[in-house]
What does this fold into?
Amino acid sequence: MDIKDIIKPENKVYAKTPVLTDNILHYCPGCTHGTVHKIIAEVIEEMGIQDKTIGISPVGCSVFAYNYIDIDWEQAAHGRAPALATATKRLNPSKYVFTYQGDGDLASIGTAEVMHACNRGENIVIIFINNAIYGMTGGQMAPTTLLGQVTATTPYGRDAKLNGFPMKITELLAQLEGTCYVTRQSAQNPAAVRKTKKAIRKAFENSMMGKGTSFVEVVGTCNSGWKLSPVKANKWMEENMFPFYPLGDMKDR
It folds into this structure.
């Protein structure tokens, strides 16, 4: 068979969405961020909303999302993405507005902003990547770090008496009247990716129906911060993260 026959359109299995740029990802090998970027870009293409979408990224590993997803972007100060998203959506109600935040950003310095945006029921989407560590700044303990987990600032493991308990921010947000859809997903295998993609699309659709805030947590890995290979990081996540941060929908109104 000639190579020209193989690459015919009818034989194509997959093509990279044009919403993703051709820039090389700066993320560490095995990082969940790249997979979630791909999911978001595919959802935007499939919904035909590339020119109607505004993404907001704060400080952290998520800050470079603008370099990979070809839509309009705004950059917020650390933790303030939901506040900026609130203003952006209110001023541009016809736009699909979403934030893309990590756990150190959203569940620590940005706790007040995310709580109040969700409580008000702003018609935005919040995508939350939870890898239980500060990835960009050196692997310090985050609010979501598990008990006993070793980080740069908990070298003997997180101790509840010294460091407090891990924060289940998603469960807290599900209790607020302003949230319409709250879910926790992952992206470590094709089945998980499909579920996460479905959740993100649903969240985008909700934002234009005036239902309130949609919150999508994605439990992910930080193999460099965890000091594990990508394969071992996925296994550690499944064995340790999933029992404490169970996957599935928590609220669907």
Observations:
- The mean pLDDT is 94.
- The two ends are 53 Å apart (CA to CA).
